[in-house]
Automatic annotation (TrEMBL):
It is found in: Nucleus. GO terms for cellular component: nucleus. The keyword Magnesium does not apply. It comes from Hirondellea gigas. SUPFAM superfamilies: Winged helix' DNA-binding domain. Residues 22-81 form the Mnd1 HTH domain. It holds the Pfam family LZ3wCH. Belongs to the MND1 family. One of its GO terms (biological process) is reciprocal meiotic recombination. GO terms for molecular function: double-stranded DNA binding. Residues 156-211 form the Leucine zipper with capping helix domain. Keywords: Coiled coil, Nucleus. This is Meiotic nuclear division protein 1 homolog. InterPro entries: LZ3wCH (IPR040661), Mnd1 (IPR005647), Mnd1_HTH (IPR040453), WH_DNA-bd_sf (IPR036390).
Amino acid sequence: ETIPSLIMSRRGLSLDEKRRRMLEYFWEKKEVFSLKELERYLPKAKGIVPMSIKDVLQSLVDDDLVDRDKIGAGNYFWAYPSKALRIRQNKLDKVKEQHEQSKEKTLSLTNKKRSLEVGREETDDRKVKMARLSELHDQKAELDQKLTKFSQKNPEKFKELGERTDVCLQAANRWTDNVFNFLSFAKKRRPDLSEPKLYKYFEIPDDFDYVEI
């Protein structure tokens, strides 16, 4: 065994490197080989250890880089550069096609996003209304807690809290009415948009509804 092949064997080759060297051997020789012949020639010619040759060869056959045919009782293998070039070109063409499709999809989504934004700008007025609605809901929750705490201790307090709760409830539901009216208006403007998409776009909770006690 030559010194270069000994160095290659001791260093250890990755699977990709073994595949590359095996293909090179086929392309250089342009001959048909049996497995036994490859196990005899490749260690010295390309530094591939015999015990790995069968697995490497099978991986190349699986990827259609090496052809195989059964003749009599044995299998024979061969490969030519022209086929590998054709396979690489087909892969390149496929990648280019996928790239073009991705560009078209990105452009389509960008245009769709722009069209959806028309008439749905995040205005200061909407921010104020949503903040006020949230504040009213929080106030009602706080009043409900106080009402529970004092309901059995102070009838007058209970009455007062009940009245305040009603005021807050009516105010909260008026804001809820405003939100539903806005959603109805948006649906009329863009009937192609489903209700879930509108809720998501305007950051409205799925369980958003009138407040009941």
